[in-house]
Amino acid sequence: MIGTWHAIVETKIAKLKITFSIKDPNGEYSISAVVESFPVALDFDHVTVEGSGLRASGRAKSLQEGEAYLELIFSQNKFTGTLNIPTFGTLSLAGERGPGTSLTDLLEQELDQYRMTGVVERTEESIAAAVEQLLGQLSLQEKVGQMSQCLASDFSFGEEVASEPPEKLVAEGKAGSILGAFDINRVLELQRIAVEQSPHNIPLFFNADVIHGHQTIFPVPLAWSCSWDTEGIQRACAIAAKEASSAGITYNHGPMVDITRDPRWGRVVEGAGEDPYLGARIAEAQVRGFQGNSLFDQDTIIACLKHFIAYGAAEGGRDYNTVDISEGTLRNVHLPPFQAGIQAGAGSVMNAFNIYQGVPAAGSKFLMKDLLRNELGFDGILLSDYGAIEEISIHGCAEDEAEAARMALDATMDIEMVTRAFANQLPKLIGEGIVKEEQLDEAVRRILTYKYRIGIMDDPFRYIRPKKALECQFSEEHLQESRALARKSIVLLKNDGVLPLNASSGTVALIGPFARSKDLLGTWQFSRHGNATVTLEQGVTEAVSGRRVFIADGCAVDQPIDGGYEAALQVAEEADVIVLALGESSRMSGEAASRMNITLPEVQLKLAEEIAKLGKPTVLVLTNGRPLILDWFDRHVNAIVETWFLGSQAGHAIADVLFGQYNPSGKLTMSFPRHAGQIPVYYNHFNTGRPASQEKHFSSKYLDGSNDPLYPFGFGLSYTTFDYSEIKLDKHVLKRADSLTVQVTVANTGQAQGEEIVQLYIQDICGSVVRPVKELKGFEKVCLSPGESREIHFIITEEDLKYYAADLTFKAEAGDFKIYVGPNSRDVQEVSFRLE
């Protein structure tokens, strides 16, 4: 029984190879399992052996999370049994001793017959000609098929969808793209059906949500935005594309570039925070990372900007809720990241779930046709979000599915994600003369163009590269990039001098539900390497001698543990410094994960209160997907380290910061409120006619607290200190054809090398419409040794002063402006100039 065993299992979702390793090091059996090639993480913590039988139970995480049960019976060199895990249910196992042949080698042998050589990138002229020739051969039903997407299996990302099996839809030319083919074998199977059985042998797109990594998981987007490192984010997206494309994925459902000011909304974790300028810079970096220099490159995938538009402005921070904003807010706040992503070459855009001016985005001609296509010049693929076309009628803006399909087509929607409104209704609508077949031609033309651009029309199996996947996915090089970006994403919110900790002396108590948790990857990831996530316990014990680290969970994320508080207090009494590892589970943020109360769960607050009574130096380490209410912690702990969900190397990155191997440099991209009653709270607000004033009663303020956030946008501390000189301008009057240079000298006045993110804001004092009190317009990262200083220069032109005015023209208006420079949006110096 002791040793390595394997079994291959065919499921509806994927072919799995499960390798078991059974050990008995100290008279107690243990079993570990590795699953190839689907993202399943198995952790068995209870194992019993009776005779030739083994039983084990534990936890499993795949597309769902839950309990896992294993029963095996061994006979010489074979075994049989069952494995019950979420997503798959009960699997029958029949396997043999030894590691067996990998699925990779088996698949490569199968692929040899499909490999092609000499395929070169087509010119745009060649693509256009080929598209028109093929388009002329397609029947109406086949055109609708290209505009229809289906799931790779019966697993659903949302509400259940009534649909025929994907094999049948693909063979009959009724599907042009596939969502959720997590298994490379499944990609091969469905692509082979498309090119061998469908009417015109048109290959499929394979779509997936690659949000912050494929197998190597990077910090969640809200976290990596706090690095303000656009080059690092671009590299992360390029790595994600490389790993995903090697497994056959060609079309990404990301990046999400929604601007949001409400931390109750669960999907803040997927975006870059509250600022349009920084959001735009990060959007273009992500597009360039995913798409590279050419979509013909096999290491790239099509980027899809989502969700167009204003999804992040949902009332009450409640997902899928109503959005009611002015067109000025739409254009000046929510549009810039989409503009930047389109200018960077994004091949696709996905609609938002919300309404705008009373019309669901999926059916809005104004948003999709007039604004996105005609005004912004987007000529790529417009993809509906999951079920969004059918939901037009649920909103109450279409009488039935037919009218919803008509509205979406009129809005120039190209592909319907998963649901079948287009397939069910478009042929009938054309027959009735309600829509024109030429509208379908426009959509299919865009779809086929991108299928030629990525090369699958000439080489359908070019992205299915199992050996490449094995080589690059979760490689050491990629893990080091993840660790580097994770360190830069950490934000030090408070430090009274307790940090950095001394790695060579003293004892540390690591307490809390995230002390040894592997739930550090966050939402929207499907890595099969979840069990290899570096925990905080691993990071800390590797940074110092394990003999000086005491660990206790104290409680679970949202419920008590019998004797948990007592065990935590006992451990805390023995230590010199306490590290409280608290936070949200990954299921507490993301899609459909809005929260009314954005404090930590009550059970964790009680644990923190008990620990604080000890009066020992205490460091709060947060794992979370949104800004939280931290007012109590700000008053009662010595240091607060915001780590978010940092990805595969989380524990190492956090330990690097705690023990001073890396000087934290992250800056917040969302304001942290003092109280939920302030929400929404954001830095680039309007002044109002009665600005907040402590001296004036009739001003825009609260009776019971400050208007200001606890931690403002752009805020983040360091283990060193920086001094800013006075701002110097090379002129105080800017002519429209000229430029203005802003100069400030930043000096490291502390004892450690550190990186500072120097931020420049501008205020338009008086406009034809009210302008924000300040807006980010530039930033620069500078690394300085102790005593070192450097001049920082920003160049301001008329373009930086433009906005959408009352008449919706994009222009800069003559008048007075203020420039603010500093380490965050609150602590700034100012100087004035005039535009003429």
Structure overview:
It is built from 22 helices and 34 strands. The longest helix is centred in the N-terminal third of the chain and has 17 residues, at 230-246. The strands form eight sheets. An eight-stranded antiparallel sheet has the order 3-2-1-8-7-6-5-4, with no helix packed on it. A six-stranded mixed sheet has the order 18-23-22-21-19-20, with helices on both faces. Helices cover 27% and strands 23% of the residues. Strand 1 and strand 2 (15-23) form a beta hairpin.
Tags for this model:
single chain; 836 residues; alpha/beta; eight-stranded antiparallel sheet; 22 helices; globular
Topology overview:
Elements: E1 3-10, E2 15-23, E3 30-36, E4 41-50, E5 53-61, E6 65-75, E7 78-85, E8 89-97, H1 103-111, H2 124-135, H3 140-146, E9 149-151, H4 166-171, E10 177-179, H5 184-197, E11 205-208, H6 221-225, H7 230-246, E12 251-252, H8 276-291, E13 304-308, H9 327-334, H10 336-343, E14 348-351, E15 355-356, E16 359-360, H11 365-375, E17 381-383, H12 388-395, H13 401-410, H14 421-431, H15 437-453, H16 466-472, H17 476-489, E18 491-495, E19 508-511, H18 536-543, E20 549-552, H19 564-573, E21 577-583, H20 602-612, E22 618-623, H21 631-636, E23 639-642, H22 650-658, E24 722-724, E25 728-729, E26 733-734, E27 739-748, E28 754-764, E29 775-784, E30 789-797, E31 803-804, E32 810-811, E33 815-822, E34 829-835
Parallel strand pairs: 9-10, 10-11, 11-12, 13-14, 14-17, 19-20, 19-21, 21-22, 22-23, 26-34
Antiparallel strand pairs: 1-2, 1-8, 2-3, 4-5, 5-6, 6-7, 7-8, 15-16, 18-23, 24-27, 25-27, 27-30, 28-29, 28-33, 31-32, 33-34
Helix pairs in contact: 2-15, 3-14, 3-15, 7-8, 7-16, 7-17, 8-10, 12-13, 13-14, 17-22, 18-22
